[in-house]
Specification:
The chain has 122 residues and is mainly beta. It has no helices and eleven strands.
């Protein structure tokens, strides 16, 4: 139904910055609450940051003060600005979103992006 397309991952040195983007495909849709998760090898997938449809945000303690989640509703896109990156931030980052698709039947669903690799070198 809905595809979340992630971009912006890559290799960066410690202290650097990256901005991840998550764009929802389709036109007749609205992104509701969304979040960024990450999973490092041997670790559980964890919530990094979340944002509600109203703009309220929530961050993991490990990234608070360094990462900023935001959204552009007109473009059905969410972002994760990552500053002061550390090697321990290395992980696959996944976008997750609750999305309403509009049509004969308005439907809500939860979707995951394909994941984008973020590697922070020391």
């Amino acid at each position: 139904q809905v595809q979340l397309v992630e971009s912006g991952g890559g290799l960066v040195q410690a202290g650097g910055s990256l901005r991840l983007s998550c764009a929802a495909s389709g036109s007749a849709l609205t992104m509701n609450a969304m979040g960024w998760y990450r999973q490092a090898p041997g670790k559980q997938r964890e919530l990094v940051a979340a944002i509600t449809s109203g703009g309220s945000t929530n961050y993991a303690d490990s990234v608070k003060g360094r990462f900023t989640i935001s959204r552009d509703n007109a473009r059905n896109t969410a972002y994760l600005q990552m500053n002061s990156l550390k090697p321990e931030d290395t992980a696959v980052y996944y976008c997750n979103a609750d999305v309403t698709t509009w049509g004969p039947a308005n439907r809500k669903g939860n979707y995951w992006g394909q994941g984008t690799q973020v590697t922070v070198s020391s």
